[in-house]
Structure to design on (151 residues):
């Protein structure tokens, strides 16, 4: 398996992204949905990574530059056939390493407060993320949890 930067053009990536966006639509109220769509993920401030198992997409993750020292973790997703195989951990540790290598001193995230997002919150806590106040353009929202990690 290998992790590589991606341009979001392959059918596998687009299909998994659509699955991700559909799930976010189904689990979060519109005013609390912060997942980036295709255009958002193609923005120059975003680095989008895919984990490939030969020619099969196992998952993706992205981060967005907020400023020269602060990045935001965005849009993590594991393909259904790769759930519970450490894909999210591999992607998260890769993102953290890349952010450090690029001079960021903090990486933050917004995730849902609902039960659906509990495994994601546990993963982030396992890797040292702590709950924090809203950052960047976010505001307090009962449907959101905010977390940050000093790098």
């Amino acid at each position: 398996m290998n992790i590589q930067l991606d341009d979001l053009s392959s059918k596998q990536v687009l299909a998994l992204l659509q699955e991700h966006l559909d799930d976010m639509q189904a689990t979060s109220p519109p005013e609390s949905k912060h997942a980036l769509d295709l255009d958002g993920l193609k923005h120059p401030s975003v680095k989008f990574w895919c984990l490939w198992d030969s020619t099969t997409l196992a998952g993706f993750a992205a981060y967005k530059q907020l400023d020269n020292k602060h990045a935001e973790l965005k849009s993590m997703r594991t393909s259904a056939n790769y759930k519970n195989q450490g894909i999210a951990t591999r992607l998260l540790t890769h993102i953290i390493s890349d952010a450090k290598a690029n001079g960021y001193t903090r990486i933050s995230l917004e995730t849902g407060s609902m039960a659906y997002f509990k495994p994601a919150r546990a993963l982030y806590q396992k890797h040292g993320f702590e709950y924090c106040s809203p950052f960047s353009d976010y505001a307090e929202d009962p449907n959101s949890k905010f977390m940050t990690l000093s790098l």
About this structure: The first helix runs from residue 11 to 27.
